[in-house]
Known about the structure:
Order of helices and strands: HHEHEHHEHH
CATH topology: TIM Barrel
Distance between the termini: 39 Å
Strand content: 5-15%
Helix content: 40-55%
Number of helices: 7
Low-confidence stretches: none
Number of domains: 1
Structural class: mainly alpha
Shape: globular
Radius of gyration: 16 Å
CATH superfamily: Metal-dependent hydrolases
Amino acid sequence: xxxxxxxxxxxxxxxxxxxxxxxxxxxxxLSHSGEKTFWDIMEQSEAAPICTHSxxxxxxxxxxxxxxxxxxxxxxxxxxxGINFYTGFLSTKSHGEVVVxxxxxxxxxxxxxxxxxxxxxxxxxDGVSHLPREMTDCTGIVAIxxxxxxxxxxxxxxxxxxxxxxxxIFKEICG
Length: 175
């Protein structure tokens, strides 16, 4: 079933759970949320939500990927978007043709929307079946770093994407 067809937003129990998570200093991950649930949580959460493993719908049209409006909202709230490494969310190319440059396109798109402090890596290594060609495992993160530097991203921005942006929000929410 299409995830958007079953997305009814937060139930009253969901609203209570969200309030309790906020009270306890927990982090809300919206990566698997439908759009109505996403917007309900953005409206009602005290803390900035994150998307640990999501991509940009403007680059690859998939209901699993975030719209520019969602990305801008996360940026405004100080949230973080970790780019998923699954080739099916990164590009319209066939799985074997997707490369790290396609992944970096998503990071660059978030930057274009104002999110240099909001983009991160969200591999989903434990959940994906197809990775960009240069990525056989976590050692392929070097290829992402090299591609970002090749495109002229400043060192501090690259460090943010590699982990500092997630660390920032973890400290803000969890202390």
